[in-house]
Amino acid sequence: MALLDVNHLDVRFALRRGDVQALRDVSFSLERGERLGIVGESGAGKSVAAFSLLNLIAKPGYIAGGSIHFDGRDLTAMSDRALRHIRGHRMSIIFQDPMMTLNPVLSIGEQMVECLKAHRRISTREARAISLRKLEQVQIPSPAARLDQYPHELSGGMRQRVIIAIALLLDPDIIIADEPTTALDVTIQAEIMALLLELCETHHVGLILITHDLGVVSQVSQRMLVMYAGRVIEQGPTREIINDPQHPYTQGLINALPQMATPGSRLNQIPGSMPSLDNLPSGCAFHPRCGFVERADGTTRRACIDLVPGYVTSGNGRVACHMVAEMLERERIPAEEIR
Ligand SMILES: Nc1ncnc2c1ncn2[C@@H]1O[C@H](COP(=O)(O)OP(=O)(O)O)[C@@H](O)[C@H]1O
Ligand SMILES: [Mg+2]
């Protein structure tokens, strides 16, 4: 079994007008030391997925079905005490906004020491020494002086370095980073991403990187998931998906990358916008924006409009698309006729 194994995860928000299903049938796994990217536009369910991995979904949200096995144990069925041990200790999370993690009234050193002492039986002196070492690892200038500074005394980039140091504090197996650089200046984004990548590689820490930036995912991750309206519509090895995307939505995302456009031409943006979860279209949620509902011969693929697509295996990946299923079916039949 993989280190992390998510199966048929179903997360809902109980709202007055009824349940909103934020994650539907989400399944994926992560091997030890592996880096997985999760991409999708705003509202696709990326943060809900990140929070559920640590069983941190707050009311009115709840995990309505499925399982999240970490190191063989199901997080959805664990006591709060056991969960607290795993959070931080074995899996840590980096949020887009550093102030979600940092306490404004404690110095950096106080927060790091407090965190270490909550999980390990060590002296303050030892905890400070470990904290200093972690600040050195994230290449922060004058690390010793930082221990006595408060979050507001640091720049955005420095704060995110401190956050990475805190995420690494207890030597976790997995770091979940939810748009870790989105709030930073563009010039600093690449620096922080390179640092995170380097630290995960050196310390053999698994990374789940959530971003709306397909370019970053293609550089950092070995495998990727593409999310659309609460579902994973395509997943597989990053190289394969970038070079040969199967789902029309993934194709659209890749065609919209600036480096894919001919210089001087306009970017090929996918028309329309992602539907909201409480108002999903029938059939495939992407069908109103999809150029493949109509076949090349002019006939309409009714399944796209009427049926939610299941998953089909394509190469080393999985795709939820009727058109891909139909193409694979067509390739399969002649092959069998030969025998
Ligand atoms: N606290 C909440 N209450 C109700 N619905 C929520 C809440 N948080 C998220 N959702 C629903 O889940 C969807 C996905 O949210 P999110 O995971 O934050 O998207 P993103 O991919 O941008 O991170 C939202 O569009 C919304 O419909
Ligand atoms: Mg988000």
TrEMBL record:
Residues 6-254 form the ABC transporter domain. GO terms for cellular component: plasma membrane. InterPro entries: AAA+_ATPase (IPR003593), ABC_Ni/Peptide_Import (IPR050388), ABC_transporter-like_ATP-bd (IPR003439), ABC_transporter-like_CS (IPR017871), Oligopep_ABC_C (IPR013563), P-loop_NTPase (IPR027417). It is an enzyme of class 7 (translocase). It holds the Pfam family oligo_HPY. It is a peripheral membrane protein. It catalyses: a dipeptide(out) + ATP + H2O = a dipeptide(in) + ADP + phosphate + H(+). One of its GO terms (biological process) is peptide transport. Keywords: ATP-binding, Cell membrane, Membrane, Nucleotide-binding, Transport. SUPFAM superfamilies: P-loop containing nucleoside triphosphate hydrolases. Its main location: membrane. The keyword GTP-binding does not apply. GO terms for molecular function: ATP binding; ATP hydrolysis activity. Its EC number is 7.4.2.9. It is found in: Cell inner membrane. PANTHER family: DIPEPTIDE TRANSPORT ATP-BINDING PROTEIN DPPD, OLIGOPEPTIDE TRANSPORT ATP-BINDING PROTEIN APPD. Belongs to the ABC transporter superfamily. This is ABC-type dipeptide transporter. The lineage of its organism: Bacteria, Pseudomonadati, Pseudomonadota, Gammaproteobacteria, Oceanospirillales.
